[in-house]
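hey m, so remember when u said the tokens were messed up on ur end? i reran from scratch. heres the input so u can diff it against urs
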Amino acid sequence: MDTGVLRMALAALFSAAVASRAAAEPTRPVRLGIVGYEGHGSVFADELSAGLGERIGLTVTHLWHRETLPDAVRERLRVTVVPAPTDMIGKVDGVFIAEELPQRYLELATPFVKAGVRTFLNRPLAGSAADAAELIALGRASGNPVFAASLLAVDPGVLAARRECATFAPIKVANVTGPSNHFWWYVPHAISILTTVLGPGVEEIQTHDFAWDQPGVTVRGPLVIFFRYAADSPAGPARGTIQIVPGTQPGDWYGFRLKLFGHAESPEYPFMKPEPGVSVWMPLYQAMLAFFRDGTIPFSDRELLEVPLVLDMVLRSGTEKRPVLRHEYAACLERVK
């Protein structure tokens, strides 16, 4: 046999053997560190440590919390509790920044991003548009992009509305409704529905009836937020409202809804409707797994910035009692072109 042909045959056999061995070897679980046993940090740690993480390949191995964890929590989770967040570096494949309030996200995430640890942040990406732009720029400079998402950004119903949006185009009016009086937990969810479906490009925000209940955390009464997209945005000059309906007593309405009006009328899209027996968080776990394993981020940097940008506009409009325009954030937008 010609030696060249023999070498090619041997190379093919070697490649086939490697591929066969790789297919036979199970994928190593992703080792996840959680920064902040509160809010979604406690929910994810509890659910993943109760067996789901082992089944899907996302294992919580390390945990940091600013307060002392009760012994019962340590025993139940069976994770390494570290005295400082950075003690996880080199021991985890990815980290979830999960404090309830996002004002320290930039501070907490920076050491991980610089160290090359893939960093997923709870919604929103940061507590301000400036911090969000800084995190995205840091990820670019470090060659280690950051990722943040609300469950609603990856909810199958929201993604279906995104795919079907052209059916109703040109969109003239869009209305999003969500629950709760917790500003940082729920307004980002409603914004995520809007910007995932219609894309970035919100030009103007007017927040009505804004008043703090617990200062800096919860709002008093319903919020009605008017938005207008720029004429040259992917959505065109669409406009509409985000409505936040707080519950005041057990049994009050809870949910998320979207309705589009344009060339045609959309159905009212309901969200967070998992199959029986499936965790409502599964779409987010799947997005986190893809990110931690191979760096997959399903949104562009502009789309990642849009949620904290609009949230910042909502807060500024509400507290300053005036319309807020996109051009006021020119410096942030310039950093994330």
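this time it looks ok to me. The mean pLDDT is 92. if urs says something different then somethings off w ur setup not the seq
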